[in-house]
Amino acid sequence: MPRKRQNEDAILRRIAYSFRPSRNQPARQFIALGIGDDAALFCPKPGHETILTCDWFLEGTHFLREKHPPDSVGWKCLARAVSDIAAMGGAPRCFLLSLALPETHTGRWLDLFLGGLRRASRKFQCALAGGDTTRRNEILINVTVVGEVRSASALLRSGARPDDILYVSGRLGEAELGLQIVRQSQGSASKKNPLTRKHLYPEPRLALAQWLVKKGLATAMMDLSDGLSSDLPRFCTASAVGARLEKAKIPQIQTPEVAVRHGRDPLQLALHGGDDYELLFAVPLSKAKLIPETFRGVRLTAIGKITRKRQLMLLEENGRARKLMPCGWDPFRKTQ
Description:
Number of domains: 2
Largest sheet: 8 strands, mixed
CATH class of the largest domain: Alpha Beta
Structural class: alpha+beta
Shape: globular
CATH superfamily of the largest domain: PurM-like C-terminal domain
CATH topology of the largest domain: Phosphoribosyl-aminoimidazole Synthetase, Chain A, domain 2
Radius of gyration: 21 Å
CATH architecture of the largest domain: Alpha-Beta Complex
Order of helices and strands: HEEEHEHEEEHHHEHEHHEEEEE
């Protein structure tokens, strides 16, 4: 049967239907007015500050149309932006979706995309409040997330102090390895492969971040989206400090032989691989003993310390130190 032509109103109705209210969506209490008017109305809690963030998710740059399952594109476009809310210790409340896509992808691809986006929305308790759609040959996605954090409690990048201990959550480099596997796969990537899961379906560390804020354990925090070697300089610049990392303590992937088989070094993946969406945070030495080895199954690892001298150094096993160069993701670098 010939595919029925879709106009913008029909696409908007499908999006609205996919996100119709349900009893299990407590996040909708923060939206006084959602889809259907010129703009949405958001109701912040008393005693809270509003967090605003937005993120691009572009075909050819962040995902490949023929390789990435549509539902993973839907999940990840929201997860990436929600991770910015987590990085400040906040809670996501609602989001706006701007979507450009070709007419050929207004059918099943759109349905699968919305299915993944809807799962992420429910998982992160972040309701759709509105957005915009248009037609374009490439698939372009922009997500704006509105979140909240208790007034004066947001964790910033700028609070780290000399002698603070640097921690990371999870293992680093897993998402970058997953990307390599997806690129080398025949056709669409398998959603069941555990080695690609972190790349396809990242999990923002919301609960961990909110726990750190509640307990007052961290002085500064950010999420790792472009790779440790590229994000750490931003962290240190904001705090006007330096850092010394211990190479042996950086948590690498559990399957180093798979990385080698795909032509990648596990340490290089951990240092420079992007898309992990783990947390990098600083903890005063006096409170480091209060950080558990794991939090709800997520490993927490002390990888170094903050220094007064504004240099980024990597300490080798032999005791020698070398400068850590930023070699993570940079969209303006000619080669990646």
